[in-house]
TrEMBL record:
UniProt keyword annotation of Transferase present: no
Cofactor names: Mg(2+)
Family of this protein: Belongs to the ISN1 family.
Keywords: ATP-binding, Hydrolase, Magnesium, Metal-binding, Nucleotide metabolism, Nucleotide-binding
EC code: 3.1.3.99
Gene Ontology terms describing biological process: inosine salvage; nicotinamide riboside biosynthetic process; nicotinic acid riboside biosynthetic process; nucleotide metabolic process
Name of the protein in question: IMP-specific 5'-nucleotidase 1
Organism ancestry: Eukaryota, Fungi, Fungi incertae sedis, Mucoromycota, Mortierellomycotina
Disordered: region residues: 39-67
Quaternary data: Homotetramer.
Catalytic activity: IMP + H2O = inosine + phosphate
One Pfam family matching this protein: ISN1
Length: 450
């Protein structure tokens, strides 16, 4: 039983986040031991009928242990137990940060318990964040539903927002499912627009780091972000403010800066994007990627994806781009998550084997294979490189950068950013709105108007 459980767990590792599972396990213990059902209240009819079932009907002393008597003391005691746990995890994270600074992360208690734990670029005030989440989701008052994966994911987000707000300089966003629904455009009615404008007015650099790759083609990105760019114009953002907004497409391959452009029907001009040539911001090792090596890697990926499509009879089309290859479902078809994950994991494995067999003489081109929710793509480069090039271009440190995205499982393309910046894991544009509503009141705004 134990070994089959373990095998099952390992095979499902791409669907789990080890740190969240660890915290969830800790919170489950007090829930199991103490969050007992409410004591039944005797109704007049129970009393008339002389019920023999109720805990106060003769054998009360034994049965009383099965219930929590009073509502408020139970909630207060639960809350204290949960807070104690969150405070302990907070302390473990601090210890881990100290060991990382000393160059021995593997010596931390947290690393021993959760070996895959990522870096923490700021402390995380988990106790305060739990109180905040408890006020919204009544975690301590729940007797039948324990603290869930999503409760803990949101608590980590709140803690990260609280910690990074005073030092934040760069905030990057994934596109699909973070700012807008999958494959759709940014519309003028999006409730995220005033929040993004607030971030820019607070002096932050704001960037969209997306898998969507249209080589050097500003008009394609302008089309997808049309509602946002028109809103920038309607709010009359200054050139200096617009210059703080970037779009980095193809994970890390195509950078654009926002600004006023001449054109359109009006005299005023329009807000648009300008392509920045790679030599302006890409490091030497990235500029050295050879195009024949890129195409060879994409050929291997495409061959494997085609094999997956054929083996699983998927109704898809293969899409090849300059620096990407992917499979997208045919109109009306849907690929199950398990099938998407199968394509991702087998292609990851195939490409790693290919690079290993190529030997040390060939520079290994970084790539990312990811489940985009309804499709699978292999992109040259990844969002880790994307965030890093923005950090070096804008002179921003990891503890002053936060990436907001929805794909933080190991088969997702936001996952890689964890090595280089703080992260907020959301699951929908509504949750992005939620974290920005927590963040914006904590920001300080430059006194001079630009
Ligand atoms: Mg996404």
């Amino acid at each position: 039983m134990t070994s089959s459980y373990r095998i099952n767990y390992q095979l499902r590792a791409h669907k789990r986040d080890p740190l969240i599972e660890f915290i969830k396990g800790l919170l489950l213990t007090p829930f199991v031991l103490h969050a007992k059902p409410r004591k039944p209240v005797l109704t007049p009819s129970d009393a008339r009928g002389g019920s023999q079932q109720g805990p106060e009907a003769g054998n009360g002393d034994e049965d009383n242990n099965d219930y929590q008597e009073e509502e408020k003391p139970m909630v207060d005691a639960n809350l204290q137990r949960y807070l104690e746990i969150m405070k302990s995890v907070e302390a473990m994270i601090e210890e881990h940060r100290r060991k990382v600074r000393k160059g021995v992360p593997e010596h931390s208690r947290l690393h021993r318990i959760v070996p895959s734990v990522a870096s923490f670029f700021t402390p995380l005030p988990l106790e305060a964040a739990f109180l905040n989440a408890n006020a919204k989701h009544s975690i301590a008052a729940r007797r039948f539903v324990p603290p869930s994966f999503n409760d803990i994911r949101r608590i980590l987000n709140t803690a990260q927002v609280m910690a990074i707000a005073p030092t934040l300089k760069l905030i990057t966003f994934d596109g699909d499912m973070t700012l807008y629904d999958d494959g759709t455009c940014f519309t003028e009615t999006s409730s995220l627009i005033p929040l993004l404008i607030t971030l820019i007015r607070a002096g932050l650099n704001v960037a969209i780091v997306t898998a969507a790759g249209y080589p050097g083609d500003a008009s394609k990105y302008e089309e997808r972000l049309g509602g946002l760019l028109r809103s920038f114009r309607n709010h009359k953002l200054s050139e200096k403010q617009l210059e703080r907004f970037y779009v980095l497409g193809g994970e890390c391959n195509y950078l654009f800066r926002c600004g006023w452009k001449k054109g359109g029907a009006t005299e005023e001009g329009v807000v648009g994007l300008t392509y920045i040539v790679p030599e302006m911001y890409q490091p030497a090792d990235m500029l050295a990627w050879k195009s024949e090596d890129i195409q060879e890697l994409l050929d291997v990926a495409e061959e494997n994806l085609r094999r997956c499509v054929s083996n699983m009879n998927l109704k898809t089309t293969v899409l090849r781009k300059l620096r990407a290859v992917g499979i997208v479902p045919l109109e009306g078809a849907k690929i199950a998550r398990e099938q998407l994950d199968e394509c991702v994991l087998s292609t990851q494995q195939r490409l790693l084997e290919y690079q290993q067999m190529s030997g040390p003489s060939k520079v290994a081109i970084p790539f990312c294979v990811f489940n985009g929710g309804s499709d699978v793509f292999v992109d040259i480069g990844n969002k880790l490189i994307g965030v890093q090039v923005l950090q070096s271009y804008l002179g921003t440190a990891p503890d002053a950068t936060v990436h907001v995205g929805d794909q933080f499982l190991s088969t997702g393309n936001d996952f890689a950013t964890r090595s280089s910046c703080c992260t907020l894991w959301i699951v929908s544009p509504e949750e992005t709105e939620g974290v920005l509503k927590e963040l914006t009141p904590l920001l300080t705004f430059p006194s001079e108007t630009e």
